[in-house]
Amino acid sequence: MQASEQFARTAIALACLLALTLAVMSLAGIGQRRDLLVSATRAIVQLALVALVIAWIFANPQGAVAYLAVMLAAATVTAVRRIGCGFRQSGWVLLSIVAGAAATVGVLAATGAVSRDVQTLLPFAAQMIGGAMTAALLAGSRLRDDAIERWGEVEGYVALGAGPRQAVNAMSTRAVEQSLSPVLDQTKSAGLVLLPGSFVGLLLGGASPMLAVQIQLLVLVGIVLAQVIAAVLTTFFLAASVGSLKPVGWVR
């Protein structure tokens, strides 16, 4: 099938999917139809631009560093806004995301489990950054909310001589555990309840099922490592601030 024909078929399929989704939402009285159209349009534009950028990077590998820097900046801004901690804490959030993603990509590159070329490492790094960002914002938001709701408990620990970080230690642990629930559930259900996107993409691209399984396992377990590190570091770095002053001024 030629590229132009595939493009046309994809466009028709997307239009049909959106039309059916809008029809079901209308019949059910769901009022997020405009949000659906905006989200779908943004996804189409953003993915098209990303495809062009990545194609350029594959031809010019030196551009990979700049691309990852932009991704990290966007991930940090997103996480900081969701946590509401203000940009004074953005350096710690960035460090947490970088540490999680770098640890995973470093292991994959060092063991030789994947090729060390840009075409392979860039997609892996991008997925790890996204996973680390998700864990950081979930853990940070949970820590913020728990500290606000249980501030009397924090003050009690401080009155007994605990430091700010010690006063919210149990909350930090709980925040990390809750932030990891989605990725652990996804990992447990992989292959049984759902087929992950990377696995399906590899199969559609012509890879053997066993190769697709190997790559998908590296992605799944790698994201868990990236998220554990990012969540632990985020709560560790934010704990001193949260335990010192009730974070009511943080924007939810």
TrEMBL record:
Ribosomal protein recorded as keyword: no
Keyword Transmembrane belongs to the record: yes
Keywords linked to the UniProt accession: Membrane, Transmembrane, Transmembrane helix
Location(s), subcellular: Membrane
InterPro entries according to UniProt: UPF0014_fam
Transmembrane segments: 6-28, 40-58, 64-80, 92-114, 120-140, 190-211, 217-242
Topology relative to the membrane: Multi-pass membrane protein
GO cellular component, one term: plasma membrane
Main subcellular localisation: membrane
Family: Belongs to the UPF0014 family.
Name assigned to this protein: Unannotated protein
